[in-house]
Amino acid sequence: MVFVEDIPNLSDVVTFLPGGITQNLDKLVFILKAAGVLFLIYVLYLIINGIINYRRYKGIKRIERKVDLILKRLKIDSKEKHKR
Questions:
Q1: Residue 8: DSSP 8-state
Q2: Whole-model pTM?
Q3: What pLDDT score does 50 carry?
Q4: Where is average pLDDT lowest: 14-18, 43-47, 72-76?
Q5: Do 22 and 14 meet the contact criterion of CB atoms below 8 Å apart?
Q6: What are residue 73's phi and psi, to 5 degrees?
Q7: Using an 8 Å Cβ cutoff, are 23 and 29 in contact?
Q8: Alpha-carbon dihedral of residues 56, 60, 66, 71, nearest 10 degrees?
Q9: Which one has a higher pLDDT value, 16 or 68?
């Protein structure tokens, strides 16, 4: 039996484990690394998507202001025509 005092470093625990367990740990570490990479890609996707949506929102607001301005001019012009 291995006691905690016999292991100077926690990473040395792997050397005391049987072979079957270390192979499963390697698979688990690989899966965790892949999940981490996928998570980073997803975070980058969210950031880029947020920037694109923000620019799209600004463009829509600009178009909305222009349409409002045009509609105000049309209302003013139609009121002047009715007065005549």
A1: S
A2: 0.58
A3: 98
A4: 14-18
A5: yes
A6: -65, -40
A7: no
A8: 170
A9: 68
Spatial distance between the Cα atoms of 2 and 76, rounded to a whole number of angstroms = 90
HSE toward the beta carbon, residue 38, CA cutoff 13 A: 6
- Distance between CA atoms of residues 75 and 80, nearest Å: 9
17 or 7, greater pLDDT: 17
**For residues 60 and 66, what is the distance between their CA atoms, to the nearest angstrom?**
10
CA-CA distance, 82 to 79, in Å (whole number)? 5
For 7, other C-beta atoms within 10 Å of its C-beta total: 13
Split at pLDDT 50, 70, 90, the class of 75 is confident
Show the beta-strand stretches assigned E in 1-84: none
Question: Which is nearest to 29 in space by CA: 45, 44, 14?
Answer: 14
